[in-house]
């Protein structure tokens, strides 16, 4: 059984469920048995619920982090008061860290001089797992249709950053030694010393009824054949290094995260009429809009199927909400300001609400997937609530910082080859990002341009000039990203010390120094 049933109702539900687990297909008795099994499952779930919550020893620290807000409109390139506050908070939380030295070490980690690396290199911990995931993704996308196989795997053949699966696996390692919750809501949460878990369930249908659906059965068989024969059964074997564990469920979550992310790229590139992606022709340039959209839908469908087969309702709900966030973010991106459709003249200068709208959109489009993937990874480790929420805060703040630097690079990159997409693309798409908002505080004439989404000839070029002519729009954007990175690293201190936690810190620092 997936959970330890508590109470008379729960025991009755579990007993009935076990009796009718493989009901006869004879009608109407078979139908009755199936219905009874579903009711029994609901009875059992209602009494046991999701894993019993345990606040954890650092719950108050997490509450403090959740309450803290960053006022983006007031961030300066050099904020002495903020630096002092941050240092004091580190002392209060028992953080021993030399920030100047850490940034220096982090810059060496992402550099090319192997001899100067001081922080833990994330890929030393999970590099082999990342390579395995890239290969296994192709197996999960097996469709039996040659053209669909080609199109859906197109972006996976390029060299992406893979930051999302990297974070999922580092969080898995960092939380594998943390305090555990009581109870289990999934057959694949664990394992404990006294049990062995059949992780091949990840590639087997959760419903017996689906076997009567010939098309679905064919698809299931394609996936199962492709994955079960891979690498001598490695997909179902935990990976242990330095006493830290990555479970097969973590590995699958990393694959799901990358499928969702890549699906959003396929759709975004069609919407934005992109010409290149990851140094390659954008997918619709190669295969057309219809095939690009179909491929994106196919990736979401396979991600959803793989997510359901993790058999963890909490993780399923969290990751499903990411899809809602992505769509919500796209709708918010249709406007640069929340109230720009009310007919009023554009504001003279952007206030905090303008920055808040931009940052909320940034979270929905970029931060949500990173944050909720980190949270789901900690849940699959069965960590206590304080640890789970700390990983969410880390992922949220890191995701926002990542996009802030992405928006900054749109103004500072020297070539399309460096950035992987055309420089200045955001302005051409009508988007007012952080550098524009900060420049607008100095140059009110940017207001009308932002309001009309740089639609007139010369608008984008004028905005570009004003951003570079401003007193620190780009530097303030980087300072804002630094604030989010600092906050992310504070959240990491809730986790027990480990090389994986150090690697997560290294990733956070590398976001600030990345060039593409």
Q: Can you describe this structure in just a few lines?
A:
By secondary structure, the chain is mainly alpha-helical.
Primary descriptors:
mainly alpha, 61% helix, 516 residues, globular, two-stranded antiparallel ribbon, 4 strands, disordered N terminus
**Strand coverage percent:** under 5%
Alpha-beta classification: mainly alpha
Shape: globular
C-alpha termini separation:
47 Å
Helical coverage, percent range: 55-70%
Sheet with the most strands: spatial strand order: 1-2
Main beta-sheet strand count, sense and barrel state = 2 strands, antiparallel
Rg = 24 Å
Q: Give the overall pLDDT as a whole number.
A: 77
The secondary-structure element order is HHHHHHHHHEEHEEHHHHHHHHHHHH
Number of helices: 22
Uncertain residue ranges:
1-6, 12-50, 80-117
Strand elements, count: 4
What would your notes on this structure say?
The protein is mainly alpha-helical and 516 residues long. 61% of the residues lie in helices and 2% in strands. It has 22 helices and 4 strands. The protein has helices at residues 8-19, 29-48, 59-67, 80-92, 99-109, 122-140, 146-152, 163-176, 214-228, 248-271, 283-287, 289-308, 313-332, 352-380, 385-412, 416-419, 425-428, 434-442, 446-451, 459-469, 473-492, 499-513; strands at residues 239-241, 244-246, 276-277, 280-281. The strands form 2 sheets. A two-stranded antiparallel ribbon has the order 1-2. α3 (59-67) runs parallel beside α15 (385-412), α8 packs antiparallel against α10 (248-271) and α14 (352-380) crosses α15. The two termini are 47 Å apart. Mean pLDDT is 77; it is low at 1-6, 12-50 and 80-117.
């Amino acid at each position: 059984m997936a959970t330890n049933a508590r109470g008379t109702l729960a025991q009755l539900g579990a007993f009935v469920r076990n009796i009718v687990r493989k009901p006869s297909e004879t009608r109407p008795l078979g139908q009755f048995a199936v219905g009874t099994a579903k009711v029994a499952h609901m009875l059992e779930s209602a009494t046991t619920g999701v894993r019993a919550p345990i606040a954890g020893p650092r719950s108050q620290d997490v509450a403090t982090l959740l309450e803290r807000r960053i006022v983006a409109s007031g961030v300066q390139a050099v904020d002495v008061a903020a630096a002092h506050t941050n240092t004091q908070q580190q002392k209060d939380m028992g953080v021993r860290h030399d920030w100047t030295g850490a940034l220096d070490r982090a810059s060496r980690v992402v550099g090319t001089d192997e001899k100067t690396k001081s922080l833990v290199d994330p890929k030393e911990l999970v590099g082999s797992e990342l390579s395995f995931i890239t290969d296994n993704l192709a197996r999960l996308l097996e469709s039996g249709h040659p053209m669909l196989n080609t199109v859906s795997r197109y972006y996976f053949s390029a060299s992406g950053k893979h930051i999302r699966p990297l974070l999922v696996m580092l969080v898995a390692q960092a939380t594998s030694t943390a305090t555990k919750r009581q109870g289990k809501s999934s057959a694949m949460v664990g394992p404990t010393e006294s049990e062995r878990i059949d992780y091949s369930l990840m590639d087997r249908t959760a419903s017996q009824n689906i076997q009567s659906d010939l098309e679905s059965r064919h698809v299931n068989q394609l996936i199962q054949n492709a994955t079960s024969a891979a690498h001598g059964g490695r997909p179902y074997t935990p990976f242990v290094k330095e006493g830290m564990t990555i479970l097969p469920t973590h590995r699958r979550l990393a694959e799901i995260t990358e499928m969702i992310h890549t699906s959003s790229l396929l759709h975004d590139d069609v919407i934005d009429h992109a010409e290149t992606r990851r140094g390659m022709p954008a997918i619709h340039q190669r295969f057309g809009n219809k095939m690009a959209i179909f491929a994106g839908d196919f990736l979401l469908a396979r991600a959803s199927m793989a997510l359901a087969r993790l058999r963890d309702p909490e993780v399923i709900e969290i990751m499903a909400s990411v899809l809602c966030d992505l769509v919500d973010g796209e709708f918010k991106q249709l406007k640069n300001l929340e109230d720009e459709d009310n007919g009023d003249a554009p504001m003279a200068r952007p206030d905090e609400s303008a920055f808040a709208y931009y940052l909320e959109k940034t979270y929905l489009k970029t931060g949500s997937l990173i944050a909720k993937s980190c949270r789901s990874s900690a849940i699959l480790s069965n960590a206590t609530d304080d640890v789970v929420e700390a990983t969410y805060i880390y992922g949220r703040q890191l995701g926002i910082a990542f996009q802030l630097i992405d928006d900054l690079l749109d103004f500072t990159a020297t070539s399309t080859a460096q950035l992987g997409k055309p420089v200045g693309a955001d302005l051409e798409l009508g988007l007012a990002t952080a550098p524009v908002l900060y420049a607008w505080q100095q140059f009110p004439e940017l207001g009308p341009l932002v309001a009309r989404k740089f639609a007139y000839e010369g608008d984008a070029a004028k905005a570009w000039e004003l951003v570079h002519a401003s007193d620190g729009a780009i530097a303030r954007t980087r300072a804002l990203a630094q604030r989010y990175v600092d906050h992310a690293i504070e959240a990491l201190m809730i986790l027990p010390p480990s090389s994986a936690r150090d690697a997560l810190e290294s990733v956070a620092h590398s976001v600030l120094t990345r060039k593409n």
